[in-house]
Amino acid sequence: MTQSQNAPVCNEKINLEGDSTRSVHVGTTRNKAYGALTTPIVQTATYTFRDTAALVDFMEAKTWGDGEFREEYGRYGNPSVQAVEQKLAALDSAEDAVLYASGMNAVTSLLLTVLSSGAHVIMTDDCYRRTRQFCLTYLKRFGIETTVVPMGDYDALEAAIIPKKTRFIISESPTNPYLRVADLEHIVEIARQYRIRTLIDSTFATPVNQRPYEFGIDFVLHSATKYLSGHNDILAGVIAGRADRIKALKDARGVLGGVVDPQNAFLLERGIKTLGLRVRQQNATAQAVAEYLQSHPAIERVWYPGLASHPDHDIAARQMAGFGGVVSFEVAGDLETTSRFIDRMRIPYIAPSLGGVESLIEQPAIMSFYELSTEERLALGMKDNLVRFAIGIEDVDDILNDLEQALSFIPRQRVSVRLVEQLWEQRFRY
User: Fold this and answer.
1) Tens digits of per-residue pLDDT, 51-89?
2) 174: left (phi > 0), else alpha (psi -120 to 50), else beta?
3) CA distance 182 to 68
4) Rg (Cα) of the chain, in Å, rounded?
5) pLDDT for the residue 252
6) Which region holds residue 341: left if phi is over 0, alpha if psi is between -120 and 50, else beta?
7) At a CB cut-off of 8 Å and minimum separation 6, what does 416 contact?
8) What is the pTM of this model?
């Protein structure tokens, strides 16, 4: 008999603390089908039972049949999906998580599940524009009103509360594209005083850099399409939180239908395994890029929480383990000059997403607000010369060299951006 055959089997549960260790091991078992190392793709829409007694036991929740995962229909659950949900819950230090077909499907399903007609929602500006659109346009059709308050103005947030009517406070942290960081402790303090639930979209941060649930936030949202997947090849979303609340969301998902395909769940789990490695490199590269751009004479302003010049730097330093892989900045020039700079970049692709291994770059004035005039974009807080740079995992020196050559055509002096009004500057003085 070999030494391995004589070795005792340890059944003790190990407390996994590290991000990368959790990313690899949580949600998986060592006794997978066929001895597979990775979680198998259970590509089925329906499940079978060995006999009627097993079905009755399942319906009465007395047993789980043979001890393995069991469901009756694919819309209600899938073992490939369940493994990812367990992993994501652990990463966010939450009790449970529910996976959806996209990030937008996650936030819309949550709000449709927990809100009723006559409710009131408060959200901060600078949140993802499609989330704002859903709240301001679609929820209004169901008699649910939304008040938008300036990011960082907690007096305005509290003043917007309608007692016994306000049900949710929604914010993103960091936000898109100015990377504003919400004071989570302050938001929780206000919400608990008025018995209001809270939702933080933590997509830009990832669980590696920030865990809002640990601060008392009720629901944590991620577009898993971004950093969690990390390869720009799937759509998925997740919400993490307290077990009973997540169970209600899973039940509602069976009705609303926003399920994830098992193949996408498999790809997502594979991406999550390298989350810690990718995010830490993206953090470091983004910090270097932000510091480089801040000192460059062809750049007007840099928005990155890791810089002392950012309005929320102190908050970010207090509650984040890293400052993220996105850097936003303003080129010294107009719409056309900024477009020329982007076209000269050779490493990043021009694309609207973020969080993948490839660097992506965009000019929000064209990518997201093309149909508006300069004045209309400014009213929404979008400058013509604003650039959002989502850092990938390329070598930092290559990215810095690419930035240098792309900026070389811009006159090396600081110029004032046209049409910047005093109201715009006041926007960030909270």
Assistant:
1) 999 888 888 875 544 445 568 888 999 999 999 999 999
2) beta
3) 41
4) 23
5) 96
6) alpha
7) none
8) 0.88
Mark 210-237 as b/e (b = at least 16 C-beta within 10 Å).
bbbbebebbbbbbbbbbbbbbbbebbbb
Domains detected in the chain: 19-42+78-272 (3.40.640.10), 279-426 (3.90.1150.10)
Question: Is 75 within 8 Å of 89 (Cβ atoms)?
Answer: no
Distance CA 100, CA 167 (A): 23
Q: Which residues are catalytic?
A: 75, 128, 201, 226
Taking CA atoms, 234 is separated from 112, 130, 263, 266, 359, in Å, by: 24, 19, 9, 10, 17
SS3 394: coil
Taking the mean position of all CA atoms in its chain, how far away is CA 135?
A: 18
What is the b/e burial string over 312-329, where b = at least 16 CB atoms within 10 angstroms of the residue's CB? bbebbeebbebbbbbbbb
Q: How far apart are CA 92 and CA 348, in angstroms?
A: 30
Does the pLDDT at position 114 exceed 50?
yes
* Residue 252 exposed, middle or buried by CB count within 10 Å (0-12, 13-18, 19+): middle
Token reading at 412 = 């090396």
What is the rounded distance in angstroms from the CA atom of residue 82 to the CA atom of residue 95?
13
Q: pLDDT by residue (tens digit) across 403-414?
A: 999 999 987 654
**SS3 for 116?**
coil
What CA–CA distance (Å, rounded) separates 119 from 117? Answer: 6
Residue range 286-296: average pLDDT?
Answer: 98
Instruction: Give the total residue count for the chain.
Output: 430
Q: Which two tokens stand for residue 167?
A: 């049900």
Structure tokens belonging to residue 116? 């009723």
Q: Report pLDDT for 31.
A: 64
The answer to whether 206 and 221 have CB atoms below 8 angstroms apart is no
**pLDDT bucket at 419, cuts 50 / 70 / 90:** very low
- Give the pLDDT mean for 25-31: 70
Helix (H, G, I), strand (E, B) or coil at 133: helix
Tokens read off for 114: 């927990």
Residue 179 contacts residue 305 (beta carbons within 8 Å): yes
List all residues 6 or more positions away from 244 whose beta carbon is below 8 Å from its beta carbon.
none
**Contact call for residues 258 and 107 (beta carbons, < 8 A):** no
pLDDT mean over 270-275: 96
Residue whose pair of structure tokens reads 């055959």 in the numeric block: 5
CA 282 to chain centre: 15
Out of 293-307, 329-343, 410-424, pick the least confident: 410-424
First to last CA, the chain: 71
